[in-house]
Predict the 3D structure of the following.
Amino acid sequence: MMVPMMFTHDDPVLVLDEEQSWKLLENTRHGRIVLSAAGETDLFPVNYRAHDGVLLMRTAPGTKLAELTINANVLFEADGIFGEEAWSVVVKGTARVLIQDQEIADAEALNLKSWVPTLKDFYVEIKPSQINGRHFNLGEQPERF
């Protein structure tokens, strides 16, 4: 889903407000999460759902789950390219594994499917503290005068 934008000839990059950025996140299912623990930083592709002001994803035991348990501070990024336009949204936030029965049931009701046929028994919530979005009008670099 593209958010209608008005570009000027001089400025092909528009800063999106939080509402515009969130709409893009709500209509996208794939992104990347950046995690850091013990001096190491990792980037993982994930599928997710944006719902009620949080991002939700599923995961299995492994590096991703261990790192977000050690350090809850995360970055999340999603983007899209459509013809001559593109967008990118970056979310800073904190992650936590859902443990309460009701919050797990609520997450399961969103029908979040895994990309690959593996067991992903843990639901993770990312609560945003900051959302930054950009919308781009793609094209060639202009000539210098």
